[in-house]
TrEMBL record, chain A:
Molecular-function annotations in GO: transmembrane transporter activity
Pfam families attached to this UniProt entry: BPD_transp_2 (PF02653)
UniProt organism field: Ornithinicoccus hortensis
GO cellular component terms, semicolon-separated: plasma membrane
Subcellular location: Cell membrane
The protein, known as: Amino acid/amide ABC transporter membrane protein 1 (HAAT family)
InterPro entries in alphabetical order: ABC_transp_permease, BCAA_transport_permease
Swiss-Prot/TrEMBL keywords: Amino-acid transport, Cell membrane, Membrane, Transmembrane, Transmembrane helix, Transport
Family: Belongs to the binding-protein-dependent transport system permease family. LivHM subfamily.
Bilayer-spanning residue ranges: 6-27, 34-53, 65-87, 99-117, 146-163, 192-215, 227-254, 261-280
GO biological process, one term: amino acid transport
Origin superkingdom: Bacteria
Main localisation: membrane
Lipid bilayer topology: Multi-pass membrane protein
UniProtKB/TrEMBL annotation, chain B:
One BP annotation, GO: L-amino acid transport
Pfam families hit by this protein: ABC_tran (PF00005)
Keywords from the UniProt entry: Amino-acid transport, ATP-binding, Nucleotide-binding, Transport
Family: Belongs to the ABC transporter superfamily.
GO molecular function, one term: branched-chain amino acid transmembrane transporter activity
CDD domains given in the database record: ABC_TM1139_LivF_branched (cd03224)
Keyword Nucleotide-binding: yes
Protein name: Amino acid/amide ABC transporter ATP-binding protein 2 (HAAT family)
Residue span, ABC transporter domain: 8-233
Automatic annotation (TrEMBL), chain D:
GO cellular component assignments: plasma membrane
Identification of the protein by name: Amino acid/amide ABC transporter membrane protein 2 (HAAT family)
Any one Pfam family match given in the protein's UniProt record, by short name: BPD_transp_2
GO MF terms, alphabetically ordered: branched-chain amino acid transmembrane transporter activity
Lineage: Bacteria, Bacillati, Actinomycetota, Actinomycetes, Micrococcales
Predominant location category: membrane
Region (Disordered): 340-361
Subcellular location: Cell membrane
Top-rank taxon, per record: Bacteria
Keyword set includes Membrane: yes
Annotated membrane topology: Multi-pass membrane protein
Keywords: Cell membrane, Membrane, Transmembrane, Transmembrane helix
TrEMBL record, chain E:
Alphabetical list of CDD domains matching this protein: ABC_Mj1267_LivG_branched (cd03219)
InterPro entries: AAA+_ATPase (IPR003593), ABC_AA/LPS_Transport (IPR051120), ABC_transporter-like_ATP-bd (IPR003439), BCA_ABC_TP_C (IPR032823), P-loop_NTPase (IPR027417)
Gene Ontology MF terms in the entry: ATP binding; ATP hydrolysis activity
A Pfam family reported for this protein in Swiss-Prot or TrEMBL: BCA_ABC_TP_C
Keywords: ATP-binding, Nucleotide-binding, Transport
Ranges for region Disordered: 1-27
Protein name: Amino acid/amide ABC transporter ATP-binding protein 1 (HAAT family)
Domain ABC transporter span(s) in chain numbering: 28-271
Highest classification ranks of the organism: Bacteria, Bacillati, Actinomycetota, Actinomycetes, Micrococcales
Entry GO CC: plasma membrane
C-alpha cells in the first residue's frame, strides 16, 4: 500500500517536470508548427544559471531556492526568446528547416555547456526541508516532489489564465488558428510567437531548476534526456494541446514509474508502446487539434 | 474616375501565391469617398490583388496610401495605417468568442466604435459570448465586418462579403456596406452585380491578373458589350457569373 | 563501487581523433627510441580521470627513469591520443598507432574500450597495459594484456573487511546493468564464499525514482548493504537512502570515488563506510610521497587514479628495460614484484592480475567540505581476486 | 538508353574516382590536416574506410529524406541492427561469416517491415516522433544487455573465430578498406537503382503530392514502405561492414545521436542529392576527427576563455556550421556547387533521358 | 442567358434526372448521398446518374457542395449516407486508390500536380499507374518506353510538347490546367471528374482548353462530370446540367431546361425575389 502511494506521488512529481517541459513544446508546436529540439537546452540553461545563483547566495536558504527558480525561468525565457528571434523567425513557415535549425542549435549548445560547466554532473542542494520527507499513508514522500507538483499546477493555471484572459493570450489563440488574419488586423504576430517561445522557455527553465532538485544534479545533457519524454508526452497528449500535455505527462510518468518498479524496469518500453498504441488508434493524440 | 485625389493608388502591382504568378499587372485607384468595385470572373486575381495590397502575399509594384508608399510594409503595418480588411472567407477565429473576435481587432490609438457595430449588427451583442465557429455563415460575415467597423479606417478592402449568403442577408450586408462607405472609402470585390450597382461609383475590371478596364460603375454595368466581355454576363441582368 | 569508470554516460557521439603528440624529455645518449602510445580520455565524460591518469603516468616514467626518460639506452617516446570516452575513436587511434609499428599501448578508463583494446593487442601481437578500467574480464583475457589499476573483485573483497563474524546477510544495492550485475556477481563470489548470504535490490538503469527501491532495502533487514552505483544519479540515490532511513538499518559500504565526488554524498557521507583504491593520504611510503610531490609540482592534483598512471609508467619502463620484443616484455612483466605508490605490487603470472593493497576509509567534515580518513590498510594478498582461467 | 554528354562525363568521373580510391592503399599520399598519416598506413585507411561507410549510410538516409521525403529520427535502429545483429550472430552461433551476414540481413529486413508498417501509419512530425521513440527503445535495449546479448554499455566485441583472417588485424586494414569501398559503390548503385526504378519514381511523386498519387490509382503507403525497407536494408548491410571495421558494436550505433549525425551529413551535403550525401558524410567524418585535433591544439589553449571554450568543442563547431547551412545555404554543398558551375539550366528540348529535376545529383 | 443555343448539338435529353438515355448500366450512379460534418449538413440526399459516354455539368453557388460531392465520389472523404456506383459496382467502401483503378479519374479545383517533378514525369507517372507495378523495383522508366512515348504524345496533344522538362510547379496557371488534363488522359479512366477546369485560366486560353475537354469526351470517349462557373464554356460543352444549391440537388436537365427553370434562376443565377 505505502509503496503504491509512494509510486503515485513521486510519479506525479516526475509528471510535473515532464509537464513543465512539454507545455512549452506543445504551445510552440500548436502555434507555429515547429518541433523544437532545442527545448531541452532551455531547461539545462535554466538549471545551470539557477544553480549558479543559488550557490552564490546560499543554496540551502529558502531565499536562494526562490531566487534560483526565478533566475532559471528568466534564463530559459531569455534563451528561448533569442532563439526565436534570430533563428526560427528567419525561417518563416519553412517547418522542416525550423526543426533542423533547432537540432543544430541543440547540438552546438550542449557542446558549449560541456565546455563551460564540464561533462560531470554538478550536484545541487536546496533548503533542508526539500530533502526531508512527509509521511502520507505510511509512505515517506520526499518534500521536493510536492514542490514540483505545486509549481506545475501553478504554471498550468497561469498559462491557461494568460491565454484566456489577456490580450496576448487572445492573439496567441487566434494565431494558432489563422496567423495571416491576425496580421491583417494590424497585430505583429511575430512578437506573439516570440512570446510563446519565451513562455515555453520560462516553463522549461523552471522545470530545469526543479528537475535539478529531483535528480540531484545538473549536467549539459539533462535537458536533452528529458526532452525525449517531453516529445512523447506532447505527441500522446496531442500536439498543440496544453491540457493534453498535462494529462499525458501524468499518464506517462505514472506508467513509467509503475512499470519500472513492478515490471522489472520496463518503464521506457511501456512508454514507447503507449505512444505506438495512441498513434495507431488516435493519430492526432488524446486531445489533438485544440488550442487549450 | 473622380476628380478628388484617390486615397489608395496601385500601380503595376504583381503578386505570387503558392509559387505562381497570380496577379500580373494591376493599376487601380480607390476614390477618397464611396465604393470602388473590383470586378472580374472567378480566379482572375481579385482576392490576390487585395491580399497583395495588404502585404499578405509576395508582391512587387507601387501601392500608395494617402500619399505614402506602403508596398514595402508588412501586413500589420499596413493595417495600422488604417487599412481595414474583410477577407473572402470571413476568417473569423472560431475558437474565440464573438466579443474576443472584436476585441482582438482593436487597433491601439484609435477610438473603438462598438456602438456603431452593435447598432448595425445587434446580433453580435446578443451573441457576445458564443464561440465564433458555431455561428452561421451570415453571422460570421457580420463578425468579419464588425472587426473593421470598430476602428477608424482610411480605407476598407472588402472581399466578396455576400458570397454564399441568402438573398435577405445580401440585402442586409448591402445596407451595412452603405453605412461603412459613409465612414471610409471602400474597395469592394463583389460578384453580385446588383449589390455593385447599388453601391459602387467606380469599377476596375480584372482579367487574367491584369486590370483591363477603369471607369464609372453605372456606365460599365449598362454596357452589355463590356460586361459580356469581361464578366461573361449581361450587366443589365445583375447576375453573378 | 562508484569510482568505477564504466559509465559511458553522455556518449556525445563525436568520432574525434588523434591528439597531438607530446614527447617525453630525453636525457643521456639514447641509441634507439621506443614508441609508446597512450589512449585515454583527454576530453569527454571521463576527462577528469584522464587527467589524473596522465599526471601519474608522467610522474611514474620520470621516477623509473630517474627523470631522463631513457632506460638502458632506449628512449621512451610517448604519444597521447584522446579516446573522448568513445570506443570507435579509441579503436581508430589504436589502429593508427599499431599501423605505425607501436609495440606498446596503454591507457583508458572506460572498461568497454579496455576490452576492445585487449582484443586489438591479441590480434596484432602488441603489449597493452590498461589504465584505471576496473572490468574483471580484462584479467586473464590474453597474454598481451596487463593492467596498472585494480579490478572490481578487489574492491568487493575489500568491502568484506566490514563484515564481522559468519553467516551475515549482505544486500547488494545496484543498478541493473553490466556494472551492477558484475558487482553483484563479485560479492556473491567473494563474500558468498566467505559464508555470507547475498541477495540484491537491483534498480532499473533508467529509473529516476529510487525511493521505492530504498524501502525494499529497509524491508530486507540486512547486516550489510553493499552499494554499487556509477554515474550522475548517485547523489539522488544517496538522498533516497537517507530519506527512507536505510542508514539506521545496517552499515552501508561503497567505494570512495575521486575528490570531486565527495560532495555527491551530501550529509549522509559520514554514515557511509568506504572501501577505497587510493587517496593521497592513504599509503605511507616514500614512493607515494614522491608521486604526490611530482604531480603537485606539475600543477595537477593527486587523486584516485594517480597511482594507476604511475604504475603504468613503472611497468612501461620495466618492459622496455628488460624486453626487446613483445614476448620479452611480457616475460619481463609476468610475475614481477615491485614497490609502487601503494606499497608492494605483484603482477600475477597466471592471469596478470595486479595484486596490491586496498584501503578502508571514512569521510569526515572539514569546514564546508569532506575529507577522507584512513580506517585500515587491507593487505593485497587478502583481497587478491580468484585466479582467472581465461588466458 | 541514350547518354548526353554530362552523363558520360559524370559517370566517367565517378569511375575514375573509384579507381583512384581503390589504389590509395598502394600509394603514399599525405594530406596534412585531413588525414592522420600517409594513405598506405592503417590510420589513414581506417579513417577513409569510416568516411566511406558513413557515406553509404548517409546515402541510405538520402533515400528516406531526399527521395521519399520521410524525416526519420530512427534510422540508426537499422544500422545498429546490422552492427549488433552480426555481432550477436557471430557470438552465439558457430557459423561462417557469409551465412551469418545473410541471417542478419533477414533480421534487419523483418525488423524494418514491422516498424516501418507501424510508423508509416502517421506522417510528418508524428512520423519523426514515432521513429525516434522506436529507435530510443532499441538503444535502451542495447544498453540494457538483455540476455547478455549486447554487452550493455561496454558493447560487444567482434568474435573473430569465423571471420576470415584477411579481415582481422591492423595490418589487414586495407582489406577492410577495400571492402568499405565496395560497400559504398554497391550502395551508390543500389540507391541509383531504387531511385530510377518505378517504385523510386512513385516515391518521389508521393513526396510531392500524396493525394494525387492515390487519385492515379497507386498506393503511397506501400511505396513508402518499400523505400523505408530498402533504406533500412542498406543501412543494416553497411552496419555489418562497420562491425568488421570497428571490431565492436557499441550503443552509439543505435542512438538518436547517430541518426542526427546522418541528418547532419545529408543536410550539409544538400537534401535530394546523392553526391551531396556522400560529400556531407566525408565532411562530417573529417570535421569530427580533425576538429578534435584542433580543439587540443596549442593556439586554442592560449585563447581567452570566450573563444577557447566554444572552439575546443567539436560538436559546437559542427552544430553551428549546420545551423548556418540550414539558414543560409539551403541546398547544402551540392546546391552551392551547382550554383557555382551553373549546371542546372533549363533546356527546352527533351531528347535527354528523363531524370527527375529535383533529385538529380 | 446568352449562348444557350451553343449546346444545341447535344443529343435529345430526358427530362427527368436519373434516367439513363443509353442502354445498360449508367457509368456513374449516386444514390441518396449525404454528408454531415460536426452537425452541419454539407450535402443531403443527392441522387443522379450519368450515362456512359455522356458529358454532364455541375453548377451551383460557391459553397453549394460541388467540390465536396466530387470528393465523395472520388473517395477523398466518405459520405455519411448513401451509396455510389461505378459501372454498376458499389464503390462506396473503396479507397481512393481502388476507385482510381476501377476507372475513376479527377482533377482538383486548385491544380494538384507533382510540383517538383518535370512535366513529362508527371504524365508518365499517370500513364504508368495504368500499367500497374508501381512498387516494382525491377522496372525502369526509360526515355523510349511505351509510357514515356504515350506521355509525350498526350503532352503534344494538349499543347505542352515544348515544356517536357520544365518543373511542373513553375508552369503558368493555364498550362497547369492542361497538364492535369493530360494526366487524366494518360490514366485511361472511363469516368472523369473535372473541378472547375477553367478557374484561373486567362481568357485567351479558354478556347484551347475547351477544345481539349471536348476531345476528352468526343475522341477519347470518356464519361465526363464537370463543375464549372464559366457558363459560356459549360453550355457549349455539356449535354446535361445538374444544379446544386445549399447541399441539395435542385435540378438535373438539359442546359436549356435548366436555364429556363425559375428556381435555378433564383438560386444560382442570383435573381433575388
Ligand atoms: N495559394 C495559392 N496557390 C495556388 N494558386 C493560387 C493560390 N492563391 C490563388 N491562387 C490562384 O490564383 C488565381 C487568382 O486567385 P484569386 O483568389 O485572387 O482570384 P479571385 O479573382 O479572387 O477569384 P474568386 O472570384 O474565385 O474569388 C486563381 O487561379 C487561384 O487558383
Ligand atoms: N471539412 C469541412 N468542415 C466544415 N465544413 C466544410 C468542410 N468541407 C467543406 N465544408 C463546407 O461545405 C460547403 C461546401 O463546400 P464545397 O467546397 O463543396 O463548395 P463548392 O460548391 O465546391 O464551392 P466553390 O464553387 O466555392 O468551389 C461549404 O460551405 C464549406 O465551407
Ligand atoms: Mg476571390
Ligand atoms: Mg469547389
Amino acid at each position: 500500500m505505502s509503496t503504491i502511494v509512494l509510486l503515485l506521488i513521486t510519479g506525479l512529481g516526475l509528471g510535473a517536470i515532464y509537464f513543465l517541459v512539454s507545455s512549452g513544446l506543445s504551445l510552440i508546436y500548436g502555434l507555429m508548427g515547429v518541433l523544437n529540439f532545442a527545448h531541452g537546452v532551455f531547461l539545462s540553461f535554466g538549471a545551470f544559471l539557477g544553480w549558479e545563483v543559488a550557490s552564490r547566495v546560499g543554496a540551502t536558504s529558502w531565499g536562494g531556492f526562490a531566487l534560483s527558480l526565478v533566475v532559471g525561468a528568466l534564463a530559459g525565457a531569455a534563451f528561448a526568446a533569442l532563439t526565436e528571434r534570430f533563428l526560427v523567425q528567419r525561417l518563416y513557415n519553412r517547418h522542416i528547416e525550423q526543426v533542423l535549425v533547432t537540432v543544430g542549435l541543440a547540438l552546438a549548445v550542449v557542446a558549449l555547456f560541456d565546455g563551460i560547466w564540464g561533462t560531470d554532473p554538478t550536484f545541487v542542494r536546496g533548503p533542508g526541508w526539500l530533502d526531508q520527507t512527509t509521511t502520507v499513508l505510511g509512505a515517506r514522500v520526499p518534500n521536493d516532489r510536492f514542490v514540483s507538483i505545486v509549481v506545475a499546477v501553478l504554471v498550468l493555471l497561469a498559462i491557461v489564465l494568460f491565454l484566456k484572459r489577456t490580450r496576448f493570450g487572445m492573439i496567441i489563440r487566434a494565431g494558432v488558428e489563422n496567423r495571416s488574419m491576425v496580421t491583417a488586423l494590424g497585430i505583429d504576430v511575430r512578437s506573439a510567437f516570440t512570446l510563446v517561445f519565451t513562455i515555453g522557455g520560462a516553463a522549461a527553465g523552471l522545470g530545469g531548476v526543479l528537475a535539478s532538485h529531483y535528480f540531484g544534479y545538473v549536467s549539459p545533457v539533462l535537458g536533452q534526456t528529458l526532452l525525449i519524454f517531453a516529445f512523447i508526452v506532447t505527441v500522446i497528449g496531442g500536439l498543440g494541446s496544453l491540457t493534453g500535455a498535462a494529462i499525458a505527462s501524468v499518464l506517462v510518468a505514472l506508467l513509467q514509474q509503475f512499470a519500472n518498479y513492478y515490471l522489472s524496469g520496463t518503464g521506457d518500453f511501456a512508454v514507447v508502446v503507449l505512444l505506438a498504441v495512441v498513434l495507431l488508434t488516435r493519430p492526432s493524440g488524446l486531445m489533438g487539434r485544440k488550442a487549450l | 474616375m473622380t476628380t478628388a485625389e484617390p486615397v489608395l493608388t496601385v500601380r503595376g502591382l504583381s503578386a505570387r501565391a503558392g509559387g505562381q504568378q497570380v496577379v500580373e499587372h494591376v493599376d487601380l485607384d480607390v476614390a477618397a469617398t464611396g465604393v470602388t468595385a473590383l470586378l472580374g470572373r472567378n480566379g482572375v486575381g481579385k482576392t490576390s490583388t487585395i491580399k497583395a495590397i495588404m502585404g499578405l502575399v509576395e508582391r512587387t509594384g507601387e501601392v500608395t496610401l494617402a500619399g505614402k508608399r506602403i508596398d514595402g510594409l508588412e501586413p500589420h503595418r499596413v493595417a495600422r495605417l488604417g487599412v481595414g480588411y474583410v477577407p473572402e472567407d470571413r476568417e473569423v477565429f472560431s475558437a474565440l468568442t464573438v466579443t474576443e473576435n472584436l476585441r482582438i481587432a482593436e487597433r491601439p490609438g484609435v477610438e473603438h466604435r462598438y456602438d456603431l457595430v452593435y447598432e448595425v449588427f445587434p446580433e453580435l451583442k446578443e451573441r457576445g459570448g458564443q464561440a465564433a465557429g458555431t455561428l452561421s455563415g451570415g453571422q460570421q460575415q457580420m463578425v468579419a465586418l464588425g472587426r473593421v467597423l470598430i476602428n477608424d479606417n482610411a480605407v476598407l478592402l472588402i472581399d466578396e462579403p455576400t458570397k454564399g449568403l441568402s438573398p435577405r442577408l445580401v440585402q442586409e450586408v448591402g445596407r451595412v456596406l452603405a453605412t461603412a462607405a459613409e465612414v471610409a472609402p471602400v474597395l469592394l470585390v463583389e460578384q453580385n452585380l446588383k449589390v455593385v450597382r447599388d453601391l459602387a461609383r467606380d469599377v476596375v475590371v480584372l482579367t487574367g491578373g491584369r486590370s483591363v478596364h477603369h471607369g464609372d460603375a453605372r456606365e460599365f454595368l449598362e454596357d452589355d458589350r463590356l460586361t459580356q466581355r469581361f464578366l461573361g454576363v449581361h450587366g443589365g441582368e445583375g447576375e453573378s457569373a | 563501487p562508484s569510482e568505477s569508470d564504466d559509465s559511458g554516460e553522455g556518449d556525445n557521439g563525436s568520432a574525434g581523433g588523434d591528439a597531438g603528440s607530446e614527447t617525453a624529455a630525453a636525457g643521456g645518449e639514447p641509441t634507439e627510441t621506443v614508441k609508446v602510445g597512450i589512449i585515454y580520455s583527454e576530453t569527454g565524460p571521463l576527462a577528469a580521470y584522464g587527467a589524473q591518469y596522465k599526471a601519474g603516468l608522467e610522474a611514474g616514467i620520470d621516477y623509473a627513469t630517474e627523470g631522463t626518460g631513457v632506460i638502458n639506452g632506449k628512449e621512451i617516446e610517448i604519444t597521447y591520443r584522446d579516446d573522448t570516452g568513445n570506443q570507435d575513436t579509441a579503436i581508430a587511434a589504436a589502429k593508427d598507432l599499431i599501423g605505425q609499428e607501436y609495440q606498446i599501448l596503454g591507457g583508458t578508463i572506460v572498461s568497454g574500450i579496455a576490452m576492445a583494446m585487449a582484443e586489438q593487442a591479441e590480434q596484432n601481437e602488441i603489449l597493452y597495459i590498461s589504465g584505471p578500467a576496473a572490468v574483471d574480464g580484462l584479467t586473464g583475457i590474453n597474454d598481451y594484456t596487463f593492467r596498472s589499476g585494480r579490478q572490481s573483485l578487489q574492491d568487493v573483497a575489500t568491502a568484506g573487511s566490514f563484515l564481522e563474524g559468519d553467516s551475515q546477510k549482505v544486500v547488494v544495492f545496484a543498478q541493473d546493468n553490466a556494472f551492477g550485475q558484475g558487482n553483484l556477481a563479485a560479492v556473491d563470489a567473494i563474500l558468498g564464499a566467505q559464508g555470507a548470504e547475498v541477495s540484491s535490490v537491483l534498480v532499473p538503469e533508467d529509473a529516476t525514482e529510487f525511493t521505492p527501491f530504498a524501502t525494499q532495502l529497509v524491508d530486507a533487514d540486512p547486516d550489510m548493504i553493499f552499494v554499487a552505483w556509477a554515474g550522475a544519479s548517485s547523489a539522488n540515490m544517496w538522498q533516497s537512502l537517507e530519506q527512507q532511513q536505510v542508514f539506521d538499518v545496517a552499515p552501508v559500504v561503497t567505494g570512495l570515488g575521486d575528490s570531486v565526488t565527495f560532495d555527491a554524498y551530501g550529509p549522509v557521507a559520514e554514515h557511509i563506510s568506504f572501501l577505497n583504491h587510493y587517496f593521497p593520504g592513504a599509503p605511507d611510503n616514500e614512493i607515494n610521497d614522491t608521486m604526490v610531490a611530482a604531480i603537485e609540482e606539475a600543477g595537477e592534483t593527486p587523486d584516485l587514479f594517480s597511482p594507476d598512471g604511475f604504475v603504468a609508467g613503472q611497468m612501461i619502463v620495466q618492459a622496455v628495460a628488460e624486453g626487446d620484443d613483445v614476448d620479452g616484455m611480457i616475460a619481463a612483466l609476468e610475475g614481477w614484484t615491485f614497490d609502487g605508490p601503494k606499497g608492494e605490487y605483484t603482477i600475477r603470472e597466471s592471469d596478470h592480475a595486479l595484486i596490491q593493497d586496498m584501503y578502508t576509509a571514512k569521510l569526515v567534515a572539514d569546514g564546508d567540505s569532506w575529507v577522507p580518513e584512513l580506517i585500515d590498510v587491507v593487505p593485497g594478498a587478502d583481497v587478491a581476486p580468484p585466479e582467472a582461467t581465461g588466458k | 538508353m541514350t547518354f548526353d554528354r554530362s552523363t558520360v562525363i559524370r559517370t566517367g568521373g565517378g569511375i575514375l574516382l573509384v579507381v583512384l580510391m581503390a589504389c590509395l592503399p598502394l600509394l603514399n599520399i599525405t594530406i596534412p590536416g585531413i588525414l592522420p598519416g600517409p594513405t598506405y598506413q592503417p590510420g589513414a585507411l581506417h579513417m577513409l574506410a569510416l568516411a566511406m561507410l558513413m557515406s553509404a549510410v548517409a546515402l541510405s538516409y538520402h533515400l528516406l529524406l531526399g527521395v521519399a521525403g520521410l524525416l526519420s529520427f530512427g534510422h540508426a535502429l537499422y544500422f545498429g541492427a546490422g552492427v549488433y545483429g552480426l555481432g550477436i550472430v557471430l557470438r552465439q552461433w558457430d557459423i561462417p561469416l557469409l551465412p551469418a551476414m545473410g541471417l542478419t540481413m533477414v533480421i534487419v529486413i523483418v525488423l524494418a517491415h514491422v516498424f516501418g508498417a507501424i510508423s508509416l501509419r502517421v506522417t510528418g512530425i508524428p512520423f519523426a516522433m514515432v521513429t525516434l521513440a522506436f529507435a530510443q527503445a532499441g538503444s535502451v535495449l542495447a544498453r540494457r544487455d538483455p540476455g547478455k546479448l549486447t554487452g550493455g554499455e561496454e558493447g560487444l566485441s567482434l568474435n573473430t573465430a569465423n571471420v576470415p583472417d584477411w579481415l582481422v588485424g591492423v595490418s589487414d586494414t586495407r582489406n577492410v578498406y577495400w571492402l568499405a569501398l565496395v560497400a559504398l559503390v554497391l550502395t551508390y548503385l543500389l540507391v541509383l537503382w531504387v531511385q530510377s526504378c518505378r517504385a523510386g519514381h512513385v516515391a518521389e511523386a508521393t513526396r510531392e503530392n500524396e493525394l494525387r498519387v492515390r487519385v492515379l490509382g497507386m498506393q503511397p503507403y506501400a511505396v513508402k514502405l518499400v523505400i523505408f525497407v530498402a533504406a533500412a536494408t542498406i543501412a543494416g548491410g553497411v552496419g555489418m561492414i562497420y562491425l568488421l571495421l570497428q571490431s565492436s558494436a557499441v550503443p552509439h550505433a543505435v542512438s538518436a545521436d547517430f541518426t542526427i549525425s546522418l541528418l547532419l551529413m545529408v543536410v550539409l551535403g544538400g537534401v535530394g542529392s546523392r553526391w551531396g550525401a556522400i560529400a556531407g558524410a566525408v565532411v562530417y567524418v573529417v570535421l569530427t576527427q580533425r576538429l578534435a585535433v584542433l580543439a587540443s591544439s596549442d593556439w586554442i589553449r592560449d585563447l581567452p576563455a570566450v573563444l577557447r571554450i566554444p572552439l575546443s568543442e567539436p560538436m559546437f563547431i559542427l552544430g553551428t556550421l549546420f545551423v548556418l547551412v540550414v539558414m543560409f545555404v539551403p541546398g547544402g554543398i551540392a546546391g552551392a556547387a551547382g550554383k557555382v558551375t551553373g549546371r542546372r539550366h533549363d533546356s527546352e528540348e527533351d531528347d535527354a533521358p528523363i531524370t527527375d529535376v529535383v533529385a538529380e545529383p | 442567358m446568352t449562348d444557350v443555343g451553343g449546346a444545341a448539338d447535344s443529343s435529345p435529353n430526358p427530362t427527368t434526372a436519373g434516367t439513363d438515355p443509353g442502354a445498360g448500366t449508367p457509368a456513374l450512379e449516386v444514390r441518396g448521398v449525404g454528408l454531415q460534418i460536426g452537425g452541419a449538413r454539407i450535402l443531403q440526399d443527392i441522387s443522379f446518374q450519368v450515362g456512359s459516354g455522356r458529358i454532364v455539368g455541375v453548377i451551383g453557388p460557391n459553397g453549394a457542395g460541388k467540390t465536396t460531392l466530387f470528393n465523395l465520389i472520388s473517395g477523398v472523404r466518405p459520405p455519411t449516407e448513401g451509396t455510389i456506383h461505378l459501372h454498376g459496382r458499389d464503390i462506396t467502401g473503396s479507397s481512393v486508390t481502388q476507385r482510381a483503378r476501377a476507372g475513376l479519374g479527377r482533377t482538383f479545383q486548385t491544380s494538384s500536380l507533382f510540383p517538383g517533378l518535370s512535366v513529362l514525369e508527371n504524365v508518365r507517372l499517370a500513364s504508368q499507374a495504368e500499367q500497374g507495378g508501381a512498387l516494382s523495383l525491377v522496372r525502369f522508366p526509360r526515355a523510349g518506353d511505351d509510357a514515356t512515348g504515350r506521355a509525350r504524345e498526350l503532352l503534344q496533344e494538349v499543347g505542352l510538347g515544348r515544356r517536357l522538362r520544365h518543373r511542373a510547379g513553375d508552369l503558368p496557371h493555364g498550362d497547369k490546367r492542361k497538364l492535369e488534363i493530360a494526366m487524366l488522359l494518360a490514366t485511361d479512366s472511363s469516368v472523369v471528374l473535372l473541378d472547375e477546369p477553367m478557374a484561373g485560366v486567362a481568357s485567351g486560353d479558354v478556347p484551347a482548353l475547351t477544345d481539349i475537354i471536348a476531345r476528352l469526351h468526343r475522341d477519347h470517349g470518356r464519361t465526363v462530370l464537370m463543375v464549372e462557373h464559366h457558363m459560356e464554356v459549360l453550355l457549349g460543352l455539356v449535354q446535361e446540367v445538374a444544379v446544386l444549391h445549399f447541399g441539395t440537388l435542385l435540378a438535373m436537365d438539359t442546359p436549356e431546361a435548366v436555364m429556363a427553370d425559375p428556381t435555378v434562376q433564383s438560386a444560382y443565377l442570383g435573381e433575388t425575389v
